[in-house]
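Input sequence (269 aa), recorded before submission:
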Amino acid sequence: MTAPALNLWTGQTVHMRYTPFERRFAYDLVLIDVDIDRLEEAARASPLFSVNRPGLFAFHEADHGPRQKGTALRPWAEDMLSGAGVDLDGGAIRLVTFPRHLFYKFAPLSLWYGYGPDGELRGIIYEVNNTFGEHHCYVAAVSGARDVHAAPKSFHVSPFFDVTGTYRFTLRAPEEKMGVVVESLKDGNRLHMANITARKRPATTGNLLKLALKNPLSTLGVTLGIHWQALQIWRRGAKYHSKPAMPESPATIASGLQMRNPANRRDAA
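Predicted structure, token format:
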């Protein structure tokens, strides 16, 4: 059975800082999941959702990937995945991201899932954005429905951590549920952890309306939450790091790690 061109995901993100002091916060989130080859079909899913034009909820191609109006997303994604040795052989690419909401757009993390013709997940692109309008990708080959991989940290996200150490990604491929854990590690210590857990919902007009009423700030609330938490961390005396120059390469390749037992981890994807 062919998957819908558009899905909704509702869930929560949790952030945990471990040094120089502990701080935890969580907030609800709304995500969309689009087949990048079927955007016209996705635009017909509901009058409350639009593609490349204003809407209550919207997806704009220029917000992602090459970020050039009129430039197709697929060639960019295939080129990124090829850097990690991934060939999709024409399989589907689905993008899970924060939607535009009432003209506002910010996606701290977008997930590009690349599948083979058999429907098996082959590769992942973690597209990371910071609040300075910059973006960088971490790309990995995937060997199963649950996978762990690591990459050197090469992109400035938080002014309270420098750009050194390693990211460890724990991925749960999206089916009825999805999850991802991103850990910031340095010298064998875990500095910070962020996770997303979400459940799939049909992209119906009723569901979109309910989400808009339940969470009217939606994507804007993510940005407000980031700045509020940054203020609290700064007030507690965390060291501030100036923003370094962007990395020369648009992508960093991640390598696979042995899967640990997720049952032993409260933050497992």
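Checked by second reader. The first helix runs from residue 39 to 43.
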